[in-house]
TrEMBL record:
Gene3D superfamilies documented for this protein: Intergrase catalytic core
Tyr recombinase domain: residues covered: 47-233
Protein name, UniProt field: Site-specific integrase
Keywords: DNA integration, DNA recombination
Keyword Membrane part of the UniProt annotation: no
């Protein structure tokens, strides 16, 4: 964005020079070509999100989260949203706009409608809530139980950059989106143990809403695998808690 602004500013300066007759070459056209080339190159870049994938890194990050939660100036809703993102492995956008009406408390499920997902064709996303995620919701119910959104603030919903301050506070070179890669990496590292429990990679990918097959197969797999997803998400919560005990 800064490069685009600077090129636009230079174009205006050179346009004034051209009108005065001071400019001998058509540098404005060259700058516009440069701007076009930059935007196309930048658009085609693959965006990678830094993630915490090693066990010691995860432990360190959890210790930072625990300390941050107990800091007197920490916004409770923000740190709860960060924890909830980690515990559910969902996109930050879905966390921000999560509604109380999306939660099935009877079955401990968070059901995100297909039209709110990045890949709508994969249908609704059904995320089992482990006991730690449910505790987060209990805390948020006290704060925001009368509001539409679970992680609401005075402006409606929390900012899309809700976790930036936390990562900067501890000089962590990661992003909140990287928590999805953390979840996948934990599964990969512990796959032998989990496969013995009947939890295949496909089950983990379903949590991330990565579902293969045609529409009928996807619907069948979502329904069939719910018990295994419940098992996986509770295991995941227990694993994180074993690295650094949650303070809630």
């Amino acid at each position: 964005e800064t490069i685009n602004k600077n090129i636009s500013l230079l174009c205006r300066i050179f346009e004034i020079s051209r009108q005065r007759g001071d400019l001998k070459t058509d540098i404005i056209l060259q700058l516009k070509d440069l701007k076009k080339f930059y935007n196309e190159a930048n658009h085609n870049k693959v965006k990678h999100f830094k993630a915490i994938v090693e066990e010691q890194e995860i432990r360190n990050m959890l210790e930072c989260m625990k300390e941050y939660k107990n800091h007197p100036r920490t916004n409770t809703t923000i740190i709860n949203a960060i924890y909830f993102t980690l515990l559910t492995a969902q996109r930050s956008k879905n966390i921000r706009f999560a509604k109380w009406s999306d939660i099935d408390f009877e079955n401990n499920l968070w059901i995100i409608k297909a039209d709110e997902m990045k890949v709508r064709s994969n249908g609704d996303n059904i995320i089992p809530l482990n006991k730690y995620a449910l505790k987060i919701l209990d805390m948020q119910r006290i704060l925001n139980g009368d509001k539409k959104h679970i992680f609401a603030n005075n402006n409606g919903t929390i900012s899309e950059n809700f976790a930036v301050r936390f990562f900067k506070f501890y000089n962590l070179e990661h992003t909140i989106h990287g928590y999805r890669s953390t979840f996948r990496s934990v599964y990969t590292n512990k796959s032998n143990e989990l496969i013995q429990q009947g939890i295949s990679k496909d089950i983990a990918e379903m949590i991330l809403h990565h579902i293969s097959g045609n529409e009928i197969e996807r619907a069948y797999n979502r329904a069939k695998a719910i018990d295994l997803r419940v098992k996986l998400m509770q295991w995941y919560g227990n694993y994180l808690n074993s690295l650094c005990e949650f303070c809630f």
